[in-house]
Amino acid sequence: MNMNPLHQLMNPRSIATVGAGNNPMKMGTLQALSIIKDGYNGKFYPIHPREETVIGHKAYHSVFDLPEVPDLAILIVPTDQVVPLLDDFGKLGTKYAVIITGGFKERGHQGKKLEDELLKIADTYGIRFLGPNCIGIINSQISLNMTVFPHPAKPGSLGLASQSGTYVTQTLSYLRRKGIRFSKAISVGNEANIDIIDALEYLGEDPDTKAIGLYIEGISDGRRFIDVAQKITPHKPVLAQYVGGSTAGARAGMSHTGSMAGPDILYEGIFRQAGIIRVDSIEDLYDHGWALATQPGLRGKRIGVVTNSGGPGSAIANSCDAGGLDVPLFSEKLQAELKKHIPSHAASINPVDMTFDLDAQVLSVVVPETVMKSGEVDGVILHGIMSTGYLRDKYPHIRELLGGVSLEMVLNRFPPDFTRAVSLPEKYKMPLIVSSFLDREDNYTSAYQDNDIPVFDGPEKAARAMLAMLQYKNIKERPAIGQPVLPEKSPVAAAILNQAMEKGQKSLDEYTAKKFLAAYDIPITGEKLAYAVDEAVQYAVSLGFPVAVKACSAEILHKTEKGLVFLNQKNEEDVRCSFTSIQAATAEETPVLISRMVSGVREFIAGTAEYPGFGPCVLFGLGGIFAEAMQDVTFRAAPLSIAESKEMLTDLKSQALLQSFRGMPEPDHMAIAGILQKLSFIVCLHPEISEIDVNPIIISDSAPIVADALIVLTNQQ
Amino acid sequence: MNMNPLHQLMNPRSIATVGAGNNPMKMGTLQALSIIKDGYNGKFYPIHPREETVIGHKAYHSVFDLPEVPDLAILIVPTDQVVPLLDDFGKLGTKYAVIITGGFKERGHQGKKLEDELLKIADTYGIRFLGPNCIGIINSQISLNMTVFPHPAKPGSLGLASQSGTYVTQTLSYLRRKGIRFSKAISVGNEANIDIIDALEYLGEDPDTKAIGLYIEGISDGRRFIDVAQKITPHKPVLAQYVGGSTAGARAGMSHTGSMAGPDILYEGIFRQAGIIRVDSIEDLYDHGWALATQPGLRGKRIGVVTNSGGPGSAIANSCDAGGLDVPLFSEKLQAELKKHIPSHAASINPVDMTFDLDAQVLSVVVPETVMKSGEVDGVILHGIMSTGYLRDKYPHIRELLGGVSLEMVLNRFPPDFTRAVSLPEKYKMPLIVSSFLDREDNYTSAYQDNDIPVFDGPEKAARAMLAMLQYKNIKERPAIGQPVLPEKSPVAAAILNQAMEKGQKSLDEYTAKKFLAAYDIPITGEKLAYAVDEAVQYAVSLGFPVAVKACSAEILHKTEKGLVFLNQKNEEDVRCSFTSIQAATAEETPVLISRMVSGVREFIAGTAEYPGFGPCVLFGLGGIFAEAMQDVTFRAAPLSIAESKEMLTDLKSQALLQSFRGMPEPDHMAIAGILQKLSFIVCLHPEISEIDVNPIIISDSAPIVADALIVLTNQQ
Fold it and tell me: Minimal CA–CA distance to A381: which of A395, A391, A367?
């Protein structure tokens, strides 16, 4: 087994750093300080050309002066020094490096060349490295923090792999305030050698990481990304933020880490295929990741909402409901039980609204526990618990009334026992998410946070984190993806392509394209190609009226717009007439396709296209004349298992059209999925194809039938 | 002019409070403490049955012992004492009250009766009051805070009216950390006497309030809400969060303030009609409200992004782009100018990414000012500026290197002059929004906040606040709404309704319904009603083939499903055949409607319905068989000006169908808007109508034509 290089890189017994000195305003020094001050127990060797000691450690003048071969080298030096230094470490025998220095691929052509040199040296010596242009890593299990901001927190359970160093280090104090703690965090920079997919795989294998967050500006090996993620997501949640989907987003990413971005809607489909929960902001990446990393999984959709505040209760209920969670009305029995503990005017229905009430024990323990015990919910959201936060705030108002008792004494008069409150999720094996407008100044906020119960500063945030848990429940429970097994290449199909390529065609005509698809058992309309008007009539009669009459030539695109398509031809005269007008409008010898009309008002489109970084991808969407108005499409990377193909159907917003609808039967989902899967196989088996456009697929009764198709060939021959 | 009661209520020269004592754990005391400790300068009279002094103020044993008639009474007493106490204050001559006490409408029937009594007493004495079941008000201009949490902040410019007291008081410390300050905040509770619309109107008139936030669980007078908001929104931004749109949300609201909620999509339309910016969370209500309250308005869509951090830069660019703002590539000239000031490896394209760089002056002044001055942007988002926040955090790491210099001294070595940084928005009359992961511990965060420049703790949050500013720009610039002027009632239409009602009909048949609409010049299909087959054929010939042949009876609903509609009948036989089958399938005398077929593939629906709290509303949406699959509809409250009607068209997601599309011309927007406006007039002129369903409106070339209609009558006669 090829072990993931990060297992070694993240756990060095010794580190040599080049670029640290004794000037606290220098990046190298700031990063080295984090290593030696944040608790790392391994050996630390600063390399400095002149200094004798660096931040209290004996310094070595060159790589070759080191007393041992360090497990890991960290380079924080001017760009031109990176290549020779890595060569030195290679000679010495160091196998892992983190290259903080920037100025490579992200700076264009010159930088790209330098990055290639770096890669060559690494290959020569078998070095695996992170970066360049990254901020390093945090491994909280061994207290190793090589980033610029301090990370004094105890180990956490959220793993992060990020194409931005900012989210590994500049957010550390922000995360501390939120009570969110990393297990491991990895800044991948330009990903010259170790990429974000390696980081994802490593975090998937890391037992201390319970959920994984990804910050993505672009993926360069989409297929491997999906394969790696699909192995992880059935047992460990993965969340991702993708910011390369807009023009400005892609431009920003390119100048940042030189990453190639793709259309947002493609990534949306890829994330679904991979079983990854997509988020829209870095806050959600951290928050939802933290909820998933710390809380028992949701086993159902029923949420109990417990508050002392009507507005937040309504907001939580509304957000849960709108996102697909239920906030069920509590049974009479449960309400009666609750009423024993809450004020007489309080609401017991769910949300439980105790109204402004300072009995923290009832709000934090008695009510949530009664609700959890009832069997009527699968998770609880709690808003409004507070104690010392309010007292601190209010103390200047009440000091006199308390006879001048000190704030300290006031706070100590209320030493709650948090044991039961924080043990509820484990005890009842269901998630508890807390919302509070009070920060760690409040002892409830800090107690929950310090015991791995998420506290978010807004009721909707708590609800949305619970919705992320619901998303993960659905991902965990989705049918096994399965391994797509490519069929044999069809000799008929191969012959069709060969012939077209020999003729130098850029595409297949409709008739041939459908014959090609039929060779893989994709259902197409019954049809024949006519070269003369009598032949056309004879075919129409044999197929049965009504028929479609269309010009059929690889040279003619946009047939409909050119008036070369006649649908619903009801009799012989119709066919004669349309045949004649097609021949008149085109070169006389243009063959004419006579197809059986497929009746059905529900139309879909399918197709394939190449995307940089993802190879051939399959598209499925709403068809018909509304297709372009609705833009209701979804993507997956080929090849597809049947489970993956079926899941594409659930992505469409126009779900109603995929159910029984206005007296029409439910379309055959398996048959549609079959078409999508076969398209995915075809583009893998025949790399000569650059694009397939199947439009429309008409649902006739319940059966999908391909009524038109275009196959475009690559230009490379 | 009937003055808004809140002008007086919010500015009392003297306050009497019943319910405050000397026990600091009681609501009444906590609230009274806020009044006397937070700087209110007026007279304060506690009323207490036994105490001689209350929190240091002389107490009065009863209302009638007061030394003067207080401007305002605050009641924080058990529910059963509220009515007699208000009566006492009425007798004394007090004209304004805030009733904190709950236990009224929100507790069901009994409570509602008590609330009615309260109203009667208020009417008797001409008292105007807030509540019951509210938390009171904050008027920061006179340092009056009667809520439970302290409000020591200096006056701000964001006004809030809330159906939840939580958002007026329990968030005060949270808002302080965010640097957000209220001008006025009003908790409206059950709105028995003064409602959230009065509060909105008052805040609209208040010169200290620059933007208004509304937290809404339900609106009971929709028409007045719209009228009041429409007067404010062209010159002052109004934002709203609505949480009553889901089952659980509505249930929670009902138990909270007894408010009646309506479907989410209705409120969505009402907010658009009113020119209100809708937000989805309380954080956005505060954040976006604060940006709008403090920043110069956006004059265009071009945003400059300035950061020292690639990831946040990409995220900001992506969020801006996705929401409709431009992040334009900077000109060569501007880039050259910027390159003079930023590190050589930094990106100058926009986003400007200085990379990790601690030169705060360049990041906070030089670069943003260069960008603002350039004429290439209309607003700037700045991420990553920091100084003392990082130093505080890093100090334990660098203390030794600094030779043990104290933290205080380190912080004081960097006393930046913020003057230029915080003056940029005013100087260049464009918004500046800052994103930082550092809280007020950082001197930049606090300096920006204290100078009314918003700082949000996430790059996407800064971008989304800028998008709210873009929304407001669009609202400010939308065509003047105008006053809808109802036409004369049509005698033809009135006669049709009278006749139907005399006959006891519940609805009009299609023919009559369309005649009714035609009486208001709504374009309908050419058609005639046939009672015999020859007559049918004759009409078809005179209208011209193809025609539609349909059963026409007020008794028959769902004609299509019953097989009583024959479209596209092409000749005399077709008509004979369909006429005969209709007569066979129904009672023989059922009249048959012969209509000219309208050709056109684009179909829309329109209609009217009654919604509690909003009266008659107009609906417009995508039609055809996809209508129910797409659910693409929008609402407005009747009557509509032509500008309001036209704006409905822009709400549809299927915008492409309202433009020129696949060779078809652009539909006549004015004609569609005309139909919507006429429908809105009809329901106002004829209250006997409970529902109109116009489906479909077919776009023929560019003209909208009503092809089918149903008019349902109210059951009240």
Answer: A367
